[in-house]
């Protein structure tokens, strides 16, 4: 159905009245709620990507690199196989992600204390996360192989990343705002840690406490995003890089800018997912991958040219 600008304005004006038409209800419950869910999910993934890259000192890190999304996938698919109720899927996904985060913290506890070199600690944490994620994906494969055929499509859409059945929830906004406030307060410490990794403690920075804060914020953000919309790729990887090229590496600006850019990007990608082959809808993870791959390759090429010019 094609709507004119007057129809849209009339529908939005009705939202402030007691009587709301079917069009107004559709705009609120389907379009507005979905757009807000896409924005908070994209902002959450982009912010988690910035924190992971700062924590691991690796520009290729993204929210899924430590296997936390694998824990969410195990929890969500287990709930789909056993119960099939969406509220149990969200709860199980969040619980699975936080369980893996707790396991990572336990296995890499010495690295979070700040002992040893920053580079070595980041490498140990990264390897631990990769192995844990591999184990989770093995369980995901097992769950997919034993799941009923009637639930296979839903499970695959969740694995790719899909916003079609997402409702507007309050907890992702609380987690996003609280995490953003916390990391912005520590943006100066993140800058110092990025520039003077192994000597930051002599400059008054508590490296151990900073690592713990970044890890738990990134874990909470990843768990929130994955439990809401599944594993949507590339948002947490390309948006931080795009904001670095545009605004520079200062985390005082990079953190809020990445959050806003990630949210806007996912709203755009979800709009394309709904309209490209309408009335059919694509998983939004497909759109983010199709857009993200060439953008990331272009960013990588520009970064390489910039590095070569500085070397010369």
Question: If you average the pLDDT, what whole number results?
Answer: 82
Order of helices and strands: HHHHHHHHHHHHH
Rounded to the nearest angstrom, the distance between the terminal CA atoms is 58 Å
> How much helix is in the residues?
over 70%
Low-confidence stretches: none
Largest sheet: none
Q: Any idea what the shape is?
A: globular
CATH H-level superfamily: ABC transporter involved in vitamin B12 uptake, BtuC
Name of the top-level CATH class: Mainly Alpha
CATH topology: ABC transporter involved in vitamin B12 uptake, BtuC
Helix segment tally = 13
Question: How large a portion of the residues is in β-strands, by DSSP E?
Answer: under 5%
The radius of gyration computed from the alpha-carbon positions, rounded to a whole number of angstroms, is 21 Å
Structural class: mainly alpha
- The number of domains is 1
Number of strands: 0
Corresponding CATH architecture: Orthogonal Bundle
Please, could you describe this protein's structure?
This protein has one domain (45-165, 175-307): ABC transporter involved in vitamin B12 uptake, BtuC, CATH 1.10.3470. Helix content is 77%, strand content 0%. The chain is mainly alpha-helical and 312 residues long. The protein has helices spanning 5-14, 22-56, 68-82, 86-107, 109-112, 118-146, 149-160, 171-185, 187-195, 207-229, 235-247, 251-275, 284-311. It is globular and about 60 Å long. Helix 1 packs across helix 2 (22-56), helix 2 (22-56) runs parallel beside helix 8 (171-185) and helix 8 (171-185) runs antiparallel to helix 10 (207-229).
